[in-house]
Amino acid sequence: MTTLNAIFRPFIQPHRYKIAKGGRGSGKSWAIARLLVEIARRGTYRFLCAREFQASMADSVIQLIADTIQREGYLKEFEIQKAYIRHLATDSLFMFYGIKNNVTKIKSLEGIDIAWVEEAEAVTKESWDILIPTIRKPGSEIWVSFNPKNILDDTYQRFVVNPLDDICLLTVHYTDNPHFPEVLRLEMEECKCKDYDLYLHIWEGEPVADSDLAIIKPLWIAAAVDAHMTLGFDAVGEKRLGFDVADEGEDCNALCFVQGSVVLDLDEWHRGDVIASSNRVNRYAIERGITCIIYDSIGVGAGVKAHLKRIAAINVKGFNAGEAVKDPDALYMPGKTNKDMFANIKAQAWWAVRERFYKTWRCIEAKKQDPKAALLYPTDELISLSTTNIKRLEYLKAELSRPRVDYDNNGHVKVESKKDMKKEAFPHRIWRMRSLWLLRRQIAPWIHGHCWGERLKCHENAMPAIRRKIMPSGNTPWMVTKT
Ligand SMILES: Nc1ncnc2c1ncn2[C@@H]1O[C@H](COP(=O)(O)OP(=O)(O)O)[C@@H](O)[C@H]1O
Ligand SMILES: [Mg+2]
């Protein structure tokens, strides 16, 4: 039998809303699973374990609940099926649904005592508006666990910024988890040392603040997640691959696989020299029928070129972020050429990616207003981040929304991230450090794509301003008492 972390004790008292927010590894999921399993053993309750989207049972917390039952030695008491878990004596029932993909089912659920919404940062306003009225049994409760993403997210606004009545809000961190595992500690320390901002976001649960200065706003990135599914277009067109080879030291290799307007895969790896990594990328490209590899040609990238040219039958192009503006004399907007607008190709390329995100967000917003309306922009001007293969979307979001718009002394757009600025002190290393891997791999697939004709017609900031007693009385031997 394991012990429940004392910080979750307040969840034993009845409240309409019980919210656990905080960074990764703080023990939120384990504690809630444990509490629910214990509750299930003490009476007849119906639990809905929900999340925004559940493609299969593997996405749900069913495994976590089953593991908890096993860990605590309760296997004989429960019937664990593919789609539900039931307590044999109390008849308590755990059900598992995605809100978005089971709207009708969710609306028809009767008699739910506790709904647990896991990874609730992804839950949209529409989904909350469906779920909350469904949990209407007298004394019913809504438990929510989440790692804050963005202060503008509905979940954050609803439970943290404008908290509802009868809410128990816990903020927990890995430092509150006495069982914080070593493997996570290593990951956390690496992140803390390499990228402090990202560490604060992932591990200390600090939301990424939206800023007028963010080149790509978190809101737009959120809109691009699986946008091809929401907006109804496929990954069609040329298959392209961006490749950023690692330098020495802490740098890592990265690749980005794009087809048409859909980012299908992102991958990074630490091991391997330039030759091994180039071979890996070449194999990856062949397996997927990719017809163009765009690599970062600065620094050790030169070695990539020589090797890929030798081995690859695929079209290979270099991207040098240090180069001058592309098509300098072409009009960017009436009365303004590219060279008037941008300080360098880096800013120009970021702007092209920004335009895709911005336009995608506008299309998504328009669809919310009128689901039948035609798309505002052609699909080759949009971007979708497919969640089928992209596993570390949170990193991507945090990274993409970080760089800031800046202007040089002549009023040209330039792009700076906080980290860039720190690095300005070491100009020879600017493009030789790991922290820009994502930036480069994001840009590369578009730099030779269709983006150059696009113009962001509208640069205005379009951001909106920002009881039932569930436990039996008596002692609870499985609780840790606070010392
Ligand atoms: N009560 C506990 N007893 C033992 N280990 C625990 C306990 N709570 C959490 N852990 C460990 O901490 C890890 C992180 O907990 P988890 O609930 O997944 O955190 P979060 O949901 O906040 O990211 C778990 O994988 C487990 O190894
Ligand atoms: Mg969790």
UniProtKB/TrEMBL annotation:
InterPro entries noted in UniProt: P-loop_NTPase, Phage_terminase_lsu, Terminase_L_N, Viral_DNA_packaging_terminase
Transmembrane segments: none
Domain Phage terminase large subunit N-terminal: 15-206
The protein's name in its UniProt record: Phage terminase large subunit
Organism: Sodalis glossinidius (strain morsitans)
